[in-house]
Amino acid sequence: MQTDPQTRHSRALPELRFSLNLLYMGRLLLGMKSTSLANDDGIDAFDERIEDVTDELVSTELLHEAAILAGDILS
Fold first, then answer.
1. Rounded mean pLDDT of the chain?
2. Which terminus of the chain faces fewer neighbouring Cβ atoms within 10 Å, N or C?
3. Nearest 5 degrees, angle CA 64-CA 50-CA 69?
C-alpha cells in the first residue's frame, strides 16, 4: 500500500474537500426547495462560496504537489 507523502499542506486537504462537499449538498438542497427562499440570491451566494473553496482547494493541492517535488516532506 503506497500512501502520499505528508507535507505541511496535507492536513488542510481533507478539511477543504469536506467543506466543499457540504457546500455542494447545501446547494443541492437549496435548489430542491421550491419556495421563494430558494431565490437567485441564495443560490448565487452558495455558488460564490463554492467557487472560493474550490479555488482554495486547488491552490492547496498545487502547494502540496510542489512541496513533494521540492522534497519538503514531513517525517
1. 87
2. N
3. 10
